[in-house]
Amino acid sequence: MSKQNLLGTIVFLGFVVLSNSVFIVSETQRGVLLKFGEVVRADLQPGLHWKVPFVDSVRKFDGRILTVDSTPERYFTQEQKQLIVDSYAKFRIIDTAKYYTATSGEEFRAAALLSQRINDDLRNQVAGRTVQEVVSGERDQLMEAVKARLNQTVLTELGVEVIDVRVKKIDLPNEVSQSVYRRMNAEREKEAKELRSEGKEIAEGMRAEADRKVTVIEAEAVRDAEIIRGDGDATATGIYANSFNRDPEFYAFTRSLNAYQQTFASGRDIMLLQPDSQFFQYLGNPEADK
Length: 290
Description:
Elements: H1 3-19, E1 22-25, E2 29-35, E3 38-44, E4 47-50, E5 56-62, E6 66-69, E7 73-76, E8 82-93, H2 96-103, H3 107-127, H4 131-137, H5 139-151, H6 154-157, E9 160-171, H7 174-246, H8 248-263, H9 281-284
Antiparallel strand pairs: 1-4, 2-3, 2-5, 6-8, 7-8, 8-9
């Protein structure tokens, strides 16, 4: 082998050894150093690190806050009512050695183990509360209790810290939702019927009151009209009396003319009277009453 080939081989081997001796941990990562699969150095800080090539290996994990989205689970409340609770949690890796030992460094395994613990704690917390407390009354206290209980165990078992636990949605099962809907619908129909009945009762009362007022107004109007008519008749009678007293003959003559006009107005009336009837006194002999 020539010196040039030997030198090239040495350089290449040196590069391979050097590249397997140096590794970098970024700011967003956490890592552990392993020797034949055993953790020899945990919690590697960000920066440049050295290792024994072909003996040591490095496992890097995401050091940022991670999310585990649990599948919706069915829980029973204190009144044995069923609720479907959908939740999620935020966590981060604290103890890299425990995390690697418990999960082999697989994020999906950590999420599965953490999700199981979250569901168990949620089941216990929901079982001790009523529907009203779970939905609104003590919802924040429930999530804080689950987070506190998880942090008592997950750090020592999984090497992670739970940052937050949140309930995204709380639903009723489909069969319960249908029964609740039917009950709510029946209650609303009952309430609507009661309101309609009350409305009809009030309407009838208003109509009766309006009819009474109309009757009273009409009676008062008839009374006032009769009074006015009576006053007019009295006034007219007084005027007629005064006129008659002033000139009785002229009054009688005027009354006769009015009678003639009304009798022969149509021109088709036939009357059979004696020639000396009092009705024709002013036609036959104008001087009859003188």
